[in-house]
Design brief:
There is one protein chain. It contains 5 helices and no strands. It is mainly alpha-helical and 134 residues long. The protein has a domain at 39-129. α1 (2-23) runs antiparallel to α3, α3 (49-67) runs antiparallel to α4 and α4 (72-98) packs antiparallel against α5. The mean pLDDT is 93. It holds the Pfam family DUF5360. The chain crosses the membrane at residues 7-27, 47-66, 73-97, 103-124.
Length: 134
Amino acid sequence: MKMLKYFFIITDVGFLIYWLITLVHVIPKQYLFKDYNHPILVAWNWSFLPLDLLISITGFLSLYFFSKQNMLWCSFALISLVLTFCSGLQAIVFWIIRLDFDWTWWLFNLYLIIYPCVFLRSILKRLNRELRSP
């Protein structure tokens, strides 16, 4: 959890900041993805809000339970990591289908795919140990 907590903080706070700046429209136009203001893409982008908020909530809950030395942290960490992976994957697949290769947006979403993979195995091992212990 030593390294994972920093990833949770960066990712979960990052999601909250992203949605705040999206809400108040402060992303500079040169950084918006292609067709950003098209109504269908606006709806597509906002469709990620519940998922991203759930990622942040489960990540923060994991940190909270870890600080209380409660093993629930592991379950919330697993949920957060899997949902984070799904969020990044959905965006990347969408842009692949559209043949839209804007590296600014790709890098953030590739991060969301890759970082959970680094920690999933150790979280699953820890959960397995906890389930097997009396």
